Amino acid sequence: MRARHCGLDFGTSNSTLGFRTGAGYAMCPLDGDSPTLPSAVFFDYEEDRVQFGRGGIAAYITGVEGRLLRALKSVLGSQLIGETTLIGRKRVPMRAIIGMFLRQMKKLAEQRLGHEIDNVVLGRPVRFVDEDDMADRRAEEELVGIAKEQGFRHVATQLEPIAAALAYEQSLSQEELSLIVDLGGGTSDFVIARLSPEGAQRSDRSGDILGRSGVHVGGTDFDCSLSIAQAMPHLGYHALIGPKRLPMPSHLFHDLATWHKIPFLYTPQNISYLRSIIDDSDQPARLERLLHLLSKRQGHQLAGEVEAAKIALSDAMEAILHLPRDPEAALPDAAFTVTRADLDEAVSRDTGRIIAAIDRCCREAAVNPAHLQSVFLTGGSTGIPSVRRRILEHVANARPVAGDMFGSVGLGLAIDADRRFG
């Protein structure tokens, strides 16, 4: 019998899908040969179609007229899940857009596997919403409900760091007391677990999960912090306006630096406001650049440039950050150097919140950080050198293990799906 179940990791930045094979577990190619599908939906106005993943992002960046939405997972648990956004001349619920993306993942997987997928285990962060249990439960219910609407008959959920632990456990030859660190696009999640080859055979692992914690900090937050510090000053972030020289409203810039809030900035009211204050400001050329960016709906292009600079700084000490081009601007096109030190400073505060969440996990598990034997690192943000360094320094006695940055959770969810539905 071919497995009619899968594990689906719907991520803030990237999504994956794992399934059982004859030889074990594998990731399903979702975007060409890549197992990662960027969590992006592009509404192509020119050809009146919807594109997903890298294709949609590429179309948007090359100037195809349309709307790009990213970081869709961040909408879960927020008031935005009940909002609509303008797509062409039609207002579309955000919930429906998430549904389109999950339906596309299901369709791609079924085409690859050659049969229908009935059952799924969805990954979920330890906390969708910090310090609000009701909103957190509602976010999970929303995700499960959306998945069922796309044709999954039975839907279960599993904490993403527990899924990562299940994947790591497959490689062990002896018992370990391990800290699982999953730094995703929207959340950072942690589990302390007793893992072993014997434990890998048990379906009930509740007794081996000693502690867990999570915090709403992830790669998109690092993008936001870097954007505010390095990009937004070139768009008038520190401009003073009016006869009283009041500061520009900061929410415009923070929303422009936040992936899932960008589409809601493209309003006639914001455009009119900027036009009304430019001439009476101390940085008119920079505010003209901001006006052009919003008028041309280039917010996601800017966010992509910031993200690319962040990724480049994982391997290099310097990167070039480009602002979207405005051929009629009074200022020349902005291309400036960002250093790794700039990135370290921008993410320092959020990294401190990650360390505090690890300490909470240790307290819940009643484990001294010095007694941890291994630390398993997964998620794209573990590639940021200063973040990784501070984590490893905090659990200095633990042996660092690098997991598949983008695939560990999906594989673990496939293992969990096999145990539940196999």
Automatic annotation (TrEMBL):
It comes from Dongia soli. SUPFAM superfamilies: Actin-like ATPase domain. CDD domains: ASKHA_NBD_HSP70_YegD-like (cd10231). This is Hsp70 family protein. InterPro entries: ATPase_NBD, Heat_shock_70_CS, Hsp_70_fam, YegD-like. Coiled coil: none annotated. PROSITE patterns: HSP70_3. Belongs to the heat shock protein 70 family. Keywords: ATP-binding, Nucleotide-binding.
